């Protein structure tokens, strides 16, 4: 490993794997990927995000030379394509490429392509190996690690986020931070929302300095300084890995892995509202996933303070963190809080008709709460109004 390289183990016993973060890694993908697999695949299918520059896809494909038969599918990264129909198309392409049980699917793209391709790998022939090569910051620090894969349910004109899926761990995660160069700045910033979320959790998961480190390094991070990105990505993956190790399938009664949904119950409800813009300019609508999560983190902190769950000073600290990341902490055109709560009721963590929320309890720590007073939830949502 060179100095800029990092390796984080996701320790899940027989399903464990390494996440390697290395500038230029895609061009050396073959050696890394083959070392991660129990047996070399005869065929490899690369499901590549259609928006990626050709040189990024070529770097990965070329690294294999003639080592295996290679097929390439370009996948639209739209949320609308992260659906059963999108999965159907990809499964058909895997069958056309004659992938067998021990062959390999590589997901090269953001979280949308990773979720869709990981899901296809999880159900094709009842599960084939897959490797995540995330190309957005969000997918690098979050979506590519932990094995949650899936698609949105499109039903009766509504989109239900991530309602269908399987836990299917990748065989490895290979991250080349250089690919972030081609990301629009708004999408790059959007990924920082998951980093902010990790800051709000990390104190309980072995990195109580992540919040301060992020604030201290936010300038170089926003400038995509190659000196800052590997550490940012590795530290965030390490937090997520420890949580996943403690509760891989989100079955712990005390809601361990569920903590990773901090801000998401509020955020997903906002993400489903297509007219919301993160700026005064309506043409910036709809919200990106990370922007919705950032607002969700602010709402969760305000809600927790209103319910007496966290210190009254925490929401302002959370808003400073979100603003430092150049993410929105307020929004125009927010509908009535009752309408947002109605959308929140579609969340996966609703049980017995009750909303259960992950809320911050102190700086760097969270808990899982049923029975949060409706008035506190409304306070959290109303705090987002410009
Ligand atoms: N599985 C999980 O644990 C998990 C966790 C968090 C989020 N997610 C999911 O991830 C998705 C969001 O992921 P995302 O933020 O990566 O968005 P995304 O995958 O939709 O990608 C955002 C945009 O960036 C483009 N893009 C990707 N890489 C690029 C690059 N290097 N250069 C230029 N453009 C590039 C894509 O084509 C797309 O237009 C959501 O569907 C969310 O539900 C999953």
Concise structural overview:
With 386 residues, the chain is an alpha/beta fold.
What features would you describe in this structure?
Helix content is 40%, strand content 18%. The protein is α/β, with parallel strands linked by helices. The strands form three sheets. It has a seven-stranded mixed beta sheet with strand order 1-2-9-6-5-3-4, sandwiched between helices. It has a two-stranded antiparallel sheet with strand order 7-8. Strands 10-11 form a two-stranded antiparallel ribbon. A hairpin with a 6-residue loop joins β1 (6-10) and β2. α6 crosses α8 (229-246). The model has no long low-confidence stretch (mean pLDDT 94). The protein binds nicotinamide-adenine-dinucleotide. Nicotinamide-adenine-dinucleotide (NAD) binds at residues 49, 51-52, 77, 79, 82, 109-113, 115, 135-136, 138-139, 142-143, 146, 148, 161-162, 179-180, 182-183, 187, 190, 289. Residues 49, 51-52, 77, 79, 82, 109-113, 115, 135-136, 138-139, 142-143, 146, 148, 161-162, 179-180, 182-183, 187, 190, 289 line the site of nicotinamide-adenine-dinucleotide.
């Amino acid at each position: 490993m060179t100095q800029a390289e990092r390796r984080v183990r996701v320790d899940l016993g027989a399903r464990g794997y390494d996440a390697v973060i290395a500038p230029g890694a895609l061009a050396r993908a073959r050696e890394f990927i083959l070392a991660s697999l129990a047996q070399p695949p005869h065929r490899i299918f690369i499901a590549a995000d259609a928006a990626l520059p050709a040189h990024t896809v070529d770097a990965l494909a070329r690294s294999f030379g003639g080592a295996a038969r290679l097929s390439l599918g370009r996948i639209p990264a739209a949320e609308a394509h992260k659906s059963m129909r999108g999965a159907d198309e990809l499964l058909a392409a895997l069958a056309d490429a004659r992938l067998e049980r021990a062959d390999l699917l590589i997901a090269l793209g953001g979280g949308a392509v990773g979720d869709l391709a990981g899901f296809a790998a999880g159900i094709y022939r009842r599960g084939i190996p897959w490797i995540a090569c995330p190309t957005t910051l969000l997918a690098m620090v979050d979506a590519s690690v932990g094995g949650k894969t899936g698609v949105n349910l499109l039903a009766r004109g509504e989109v239900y986020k991530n309602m269908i899926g399987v836990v299917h761990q990748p065989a490895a995660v290979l991250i080349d931070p250089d690919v972030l160069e081609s990301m629009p700045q708004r999408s790059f910033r959007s990924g920082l929302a998951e980093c902010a979320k990790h800051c709000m959790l990390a104190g309980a998961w072995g990195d109580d300095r992540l919040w301060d480190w992020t604030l201290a390094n936010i300038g170089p991070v926003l400038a995509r300084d190659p000196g800052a990105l590997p550490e940012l990505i590795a530290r965030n993956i390490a937090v997520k890995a420890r949580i996943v190790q403690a509760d891989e399938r989100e079955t712990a009664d005390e809601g361990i892995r569920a903590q990773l949904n901090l801000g998401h119950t509020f955020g997903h409800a906002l993400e489903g509202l297509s007219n919301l813009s993160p700026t005064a300019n309506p043409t910036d609508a709809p919200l990106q996933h990370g922007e919705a999560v950032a607002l969700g983190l602010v709402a969760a902190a305000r809600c927790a303070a209103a319910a007496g769950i966290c210190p009254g000073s925490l929401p302002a600290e959370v808003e400073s963190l979100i603003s430092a990341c150049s993410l929105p902490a307020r929004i125009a055109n927010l509908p009535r809080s009752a309408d947002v709560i109605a959308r929140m009721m579609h969340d996966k963590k609703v049980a017995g008709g009750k909303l259960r929320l992950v809320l911050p309890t102190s700086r760097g720590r969270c808990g899982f709460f049923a029975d949060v007073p409706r008035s506190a939830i409304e306070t959290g949502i109303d705090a987002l109004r410009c």
